[in-house]
């Protein structure tokens, strides 16, 4: 196995784990960094592995909550409402994604689109955070969320189909704009990531099962473990961060990172290519 290729897999696994739950776009970072380091592998298989590693990090961090849900579903009204809310929030992006996934990947999966979405999303985060200073949240607990709250978050998640927008960013900011408290929107985004990523991973496994081979085991193992470890770190750190801070630093990061890509492309300094 090529050591350099394993090192690249380690880098991309860490990037997936760190960025999946931050409002800075994991897909966008993977496209840009993968293009920059010229990562060549069975891309879809590797992507499945690191996505699974990241989602397992959330399941592990909230293992008590998910165990309680599994063991009390159908018998506990609060648990039933939580599950229904996740289902309602899951549906909009799932439907739109199934209908337009080919067109999105064909036309939007490139570093320039990612950069533009990062910058635009950064300014939107700044606006929403500024707005939050003057408008108190209406929902202060995930268990207090209503079905229409979940639906709004689910509709906001549709924006994440554009690479560079960020699934977590769309759901968190959409929730905050609707009236969810910052930590509530963040936690619900984490919970929503589980059915979304499990569904996406299952779909990709069934669709691309023929691509799996023994030669991919090394890359899959490195990417999976690094994505899990980085994802666990990101979830823990973000929850502590939003307890006392806001998302403004991430907005500035998006603007600077996306702006640098656009500048290097415009000036011809970096030959960004479509993935």
TrEMBL record:
GO cellular component: plasma membrane
One Gene Ontology biological process: regulation of cell shape
InterPro entries per the UniProt record, alphabetical: UppP (IPR003824)
Compartments (UniProt record): Cell membrane
Pfam families to which the protein is assigned, alphabetical: BacA
Keywords per UniProt: Antibiotic resistance, Cell membrane, Cell shape, Cell wall biogenesis/degradation, Hydrolase, Membrane, Peptidoglycan synthesis, Transmembrane, Transmembrane helix
Membrane topology, record value: Multi-pass membrane protein
Source species, domain of life: Bacteria
Catalytically driven reaction(s): di-trans,octa-cis-undecaprenyl diphosphate + H2O = di-trans,octa-cis-undecaprenyl phosphate + phosphate + H(+)
NCBIfam families noted in UniProt: PRK00281.1-2, PRK00281.1-4, undec_PP_bacA
UniProt cross-references to HAMAP family, sorted A to Z: Undec_diphosphatase
Descriptive protein name: Undecaprenyl-diphosphatase
């Amino acid at each position: 196995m090529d050591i350099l290729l394993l090192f690249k897999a380690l880098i991309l696994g860490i990037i997936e784990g760190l960025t999946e739950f931050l409002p800075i776009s994991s897909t966008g970072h993977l496209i840009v960094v993968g293009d920059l380091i010229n990562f060549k592998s069975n891309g879809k298989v590797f992507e499945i592995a690191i996505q699974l590693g990241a989602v397992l990090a959330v399941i592990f961090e909230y293992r008590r909550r998910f165990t309680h849900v599994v063991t009390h579903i159908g018998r506990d009204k609060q648990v039933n409402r939580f599950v229904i809310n996740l289902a309602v929030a899951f549906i909009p992006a799932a439907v739109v994604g199934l209908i337009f996934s080919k067109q999105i990947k064909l036309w939007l999966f490139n570093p320039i689109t990612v950069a533009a979405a990062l910058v635009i999303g950064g300014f939107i985060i700044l606006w929403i955070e500024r707005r939050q200073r003057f408008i108190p949240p209406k929902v202060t607990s995930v268990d207090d969320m209503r079905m229409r709250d979940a639906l709004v978050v689910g509709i906001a998640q549709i924006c994440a189909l554009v690479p560079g927008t960020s699934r977590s960013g769309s759901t968190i900011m959409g929730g905050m704009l609707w009236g969810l408290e910052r930590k509530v929107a963040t936690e619900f985004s984490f919970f929503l990531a589980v059915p979304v990523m499990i569904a996406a991973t299952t779909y990709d496994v069934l669709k691309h099962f023929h691509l799996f081979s023994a030669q991919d085991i090394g890359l899959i193992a490195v990417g999976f473990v690094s994505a899990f470890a980085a994802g666990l770190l990101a979830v823990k750190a973000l929850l502590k961060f939003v307890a006392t801070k806001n998302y403004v630093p991430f907005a500035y990061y998006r603007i600077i990172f996306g702006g640098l890509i656009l500048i290097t492309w415009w000036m011809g300094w970096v030959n960004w290519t479509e993935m």
